Amino acid sequence: NHALMGSYENSSDSDLELSTVRHQPEGLDQLQAQTKFTRKELQSLYRGFKNECPSGLVDEETFKSIYSQFFPQGDATTYAHFLFNAFDMDRNGSIRFEDFVIGLSVLLRGSVTEKLNWAFNLYDINKDGYITKEEMLAIMKSIYDMMGRYTYPCVRDEAPSEHVDKFFQKMDRNRDGVVTIEEFIETCQKDENIMNSMQLFENVI
Amino acid sequence: MAAGVAAWLPFARAAAIGWMPVANLPMPVAPAEKNKRQDELIILNVSGRRFQTWRNTLDRYPDTLLGSSEKEFFYNEETKEYFFDRDPDVFRSVLNFYRTGKLHYPRYECISSYDEELAFFGIVPEIIGDCCYEEYKDRKRENAERLMDDQEDNKDAKLPNMTFRETMWRAFENPHTSTMALVFYYVTGFFIAVSVITNVVETVPCGSAPNQKEVPCGERYTVAFFCMDTACVMIFTVEYLMRLFAAPSRYRFMRSVMSIIDVVAILPYYIGLVMTDNEDVSGAFVTLRVFRVFRIFKFSRHSQGLRILGYTLKSCASELGFLLFSLTMAIIIFATVMFYAEKGSSSSKFTSIPASFWYTIVTMTTLGYGDMVPKTIAGKIFGSICSLSGVLVIALPVPVIVSNFSRIYHQNQRADKRRAQKKARLARIRISKTGSSNAFLHSKRNGLFNEALELTGSTEDEKRLSKSTSLLESQHHHLLHCLEKTTVSVLALSHILNHEFVDEQYYQQSYLEGGLQNYPSRSPSLSSQDGVTGTCCTRRTKKHHTPLPNASAPAHMQPLTHTHTHPQGLQELSTIHIQPLSTSRSSLNMRVDEPAPLNCQSSQITTAIISIPTPPVTTPEGDAHLPAGPTHQNVVKVSAL
């Protein structure tokens, strides 16, 4: 009987283990120190976060489904995948609230250089410090995928690669086939459109 | 967008910074967040029970009572709370809807009180989550049926304006409506019984004269039977003709099963009248008389049970078919075996395999007539195997089929329900998707008007327009707009709206031909979705004040009809925009005709053009709605201005 009970408890323990994978974020004070959000903003952010992900962790599938809801006409999953990797800084397959809020802090309250750094990090898929044409092409295709098939004028198949060529023309100063962070930041700072658009979302929260 | 996901909109917008270095065009201006206030708790006092929630939570669904300014009517100044004199228990579900985005139907709640509360708070019941939807629909159907039964009980009084024909039909269908109908019902029933009994007794041998052999009564009392038959057939014919006359749809009535049975029942008599006593055809005539037995099926009008039996047989046809098939397999196998086993025996009755079928069937169904019996030892062995397996093969499926009857019967009903719900669910999802895309298009146009109006300086119109989209929606639309700018193309929604494939060439052609001409007429599917489309937020089906759903010309006139200065604004629009249009049209034309590479420089002119192609069925009213003035294409955003 005891052995049976033991084995029963073991199995129920393992069940318990699986279901209570959850994560509690660091304290409000620490997060306030790490980010540029006020206390109230952090509270409001966490409420939204917790509502959608009660376990405190966002895995990639949930992330993709949330992001796809904003782009019903196209396929946002590839871009969401790249975004997920950009937010998931410690590469453990799930985004905790701290990652989320730190990323948002850079995007919304960071300096222009920080934002450009973040964008570079997004484009650099393998995080080796260089953006290659293949990486940029993947990113570009994912952006165009989000538009869906029903656009006007119709997005042709060559549009992403042409866009990539233009991008490299603009960014790759020394024509070595890759864009480094310095080239990227330098070129962006010279482009008025890009500089203006970086300030676009500052009042989001 | 679901409620909870709306909280992630700031994140999605922030992530849009990822597109900025890639885009070559300047981005549209973000919607201004006027009077942005800190989120506050509001108190909802429902019959004394206080609920508290964030104001933002309620603002997620601006089309409901709590999400719009309608709740201000219930604001109590002294206590600084919103007081509703309603049921607090049901309010719990209503408030949870705002919190979680899913509406649940509690089982203990009465369906009509729940419906009333939903109607009061402006929530459409269709958005009940799948977990509770089946229950809700079941209860609603039961309630409706009960109400209908109650109504029918009260419906004994004849409705005043029914024509004679309608009265007759009602009398036929429901014998309890009037005494005449009841009399008719019993008379026909009686004659059906008489007819059937006559047919039966006709063949019984009556007493015979001593020196003659026994004759069936039919031949002895020919005249009497003939008179009976004639009378019955006359009654049936009259009844059939009366039903045909009274039927609301004669064609449908003639195709129905009951009428076919009627016809088959009386036809042999008429054929017999027509045919003479010809020896050749009298054999066929005798066969025809068999069909007279179909008169017994006329009883199914009188018996509900027969009808149910017929229906269940029909619905279990596949099961029965399978049983038949497996039986046939077994019969063939055993008949073959028995034939070859008994081949050796001399006076064997098993002359061929088909002859052995009879033996196999009789044995397997454990009838055992004994007219065919195996004589060889091998035959006897196989015969016993046959009878043993017969027990299994016959006895096992029968209870399965019986339980299948009830299972399939209920399952059919539930499967149909589930299929309808799935269709409804997909339709709802589709509607909400198109709704959000429609809303995007519409708000772009509104944004366009906003800009034009800013230029012309009329602020009150701007206020009215901006009220039509909530802040959330305008932010979402701004996000989509940035994406469009990044990819230098524009969302066109014909496919999503109409769910039909629009030929690409047709599309381009219509653009080339349409050019700067009239705006294409509104798509009929949109207009039919008037009450239900919208953003994913709920929409009250009865409310007319939904400026968002229609993404077509008349709809963008809708906000215009609120204020009459808009035609003015439109004309201004056309003057402002025609010029860039001409310059960029050439570049776009180039794109359409030749596969020229995307010319970044020329598209700096930043005119994005949406055209919804004319669907194959165009409603004439769409054109009529256009005011005489603007003959321009729907230009959306000219940020170069």
Automatic annotation (TrEMBL), chain A:
One Pfam family here: EF-hand_7
Subcellular location: Cell membrane
Keyword Ribosomal protein in record: no
UniProt main location, coarse: membrane
GO biological process: regulation of potassium ion transmembrane transport
CDD domains membership: EFh (cd00051)
Record GO terms (molecular function): calcium ion binding; DNA-binding transcription repressor activity, RNA polymerase II-specific; potassium channel activity; potassium channel regulator activity; RNA polymerase II cis-regulatory region sequence-specific DNA binding
Any one GO cellular component localisation term in the record: nucleus
Entries under PANTHER family matching the protein: CALCIUM BINDING PROTEINS (PTHR23055), KV CHANNEL INTERACTING PROTEIN 3A, CALSENILIN ISOFORM X1 (PTHR23055:SF194)
UniProt similarity note: Belongs to the recoverin family.
Protein name: Potassium voltage-gated channel interacting protein 3
Biological source species: Neolamprologus brichardi
UniProtKB/TrEMBL annotation, chain B:
Upper taxonomic lineage: Eukaryota, Metazoa, Chordata, Craniata, Vertebrata
Keyword Translocase: no
Topological category with respect to the lipid bilayer: Multi-pass membrane protein
GO molecular function: A-type (transient outward) potassium channel activity; metal ion binding
Coiled coil (UniProt feature): none
Secretion signal, residue range per the UniProt entry: 1-16
Catalytic activity field: K(+)(in) = K(+)(out)
CDD domains assigned: BTB_POZ_KCND3 (cd18419)
Chain ranges passing through the membrane: 221-241, 253-275, 320-341, 353-369, 381-402
GO cellular component: dendritic spine; neuronal cell body; postsynaptic membrane; voltage-gated potassium channel complex
Domain BTB: 40-139
Alphabetical UniProt keywords: Cell membrane, Cell projection, Ion channel, Ion transport, Membrane, Metal-binding, Phosphoprotein, Potassium, Potassium channel, Potassium transport, Signal, Transmembrane, Transmembrane helix, Transport, Voltage-gated channel, Zinc
Location(s) in or outside the cell: Cell membrane; Cell projection, Dendrite
GO BP annotations, alphabetical order: action potential; potassium ion export across plasma membrane; protein homooligomerization
UniProt name for this protein: Potassium voltage-gated channel, Shal-related subfamily, member 3
